[in-house]
Amino acid sequence: MYDIKWIRDNADLFDEGRRRRNLEPKAQELLALDDERRTAIAALQAAQERRNAASKEIGLAMRDKDAARAEALKAEVAKLKEDFPQLEQKEREASAALDKALSEIPNTPLEQVPEGKDEHDNVEVLLWGEPRKFDFPPKEHFDIGEGLKLMDFESAAKISGARFVVNKGAIARLERAIAQFMLDLHTDQHGYTEVAPPLLVRDDAMFGTAQLPKFRDDQFSVTAGRQIGNGQSDSNTADYWLIPTAEVPLTNLVRESILDESQLPLRFTAGTYCFRAEAGAAGRDTRGMIRQHQFYKVELVSIVTPEQSLEEHERMTGCAEKVLQMLELPYRKVTLCTGDMGFASQKTYDLEVWLPGQGKYREISSCSVCGDFQARRMNARFRPAEGKATRFVHTLNGSGVAVGRALVAVLENYQEADGSVTVPKVLRPYMGGLERIAAAR
Q: Which CATH number fits domain 4-103: 3.40.50.2300, 1.10.287.40, 3.30.200.20, 3.90.1150.10?
């Protein structure tokens, strides 16, 4: 979220950032809203000042036994008091209009981010691993899982509808093993603190990480049984939101806080279920586990000083890459262009894992540096070791990595001609020593 004072002082720079995101200029529109807010505040303050002055003048008039003037001043004060609610309402509406407009503006890309319109303009910066050469046509993960009788989309549809799955037996254990392996790696080797956060969060938490208000339709809300007329739920209110990513509760751990610089960087990781409505994904990846309403993910979040953020971005991305390297899964690393990067991001690396069943690379992790964009929304600050003025922290988040998609990648890359799946060596200790997943009886 932006500081309107910064936009007023850097209007051209602000609009240039929007141009790079393929958006129209907006600085003058925002400054006009700020002018309305300032005018409303000034009118309210002027009325308050005049009321106070008139009240004092009433006392002077009464002292001087000027009854006519005293009565006129009393009438003026009464009229001012009568006008206050309207003036206060105008100030609230003007402030709310500006805040709403600011909350819906995406972050400004860093200069180093390549310009582009969509995913076709992303820039590959690394290619790791050699895709396996199969002596049989490789299958997609859902064919493998259903062939093993351990992946059940039909039962999931009966229970919950489309975009859900029931994993069973060794595949269910494999998914759990992948998550445990990632959490152990990030806590034991990469220095992250494991957190078990709530999966239900309030509006303020979703606003803090910028899921609200712009992406309301992509979220699942929970209204705790509250209903309105004709038994219909009120879609504009929610007691809680189901988290779309653990980024939300992890980043909000520092909301409305002032940290000491000595506490930074803070690094958190969590393995949680995530929930997304996939409102804009109609017709995309309708089969399988690539795009689901409920999925498991290991998240990485860092809270740092402004001077640490770019280096931390490289470090975080490297932690996610290590997961894929230890699983021996070929992947590529790309820098997202300005037209494809996320709303809150200043710069994003995507890691795309090779899926032989599809014959293409698919996203398995996004690692983003957000600068102070989220910190302003959360009012998360730190006190520098030198100097008295507080500063906003910088926040970063990344998938370390998406567990469901890692499961997909393992099934497809480690499949065998007989339909079985070899368990990656690094996961075998988490699988009770199991080396191969065969069809269930």
A: 1.10.287.40
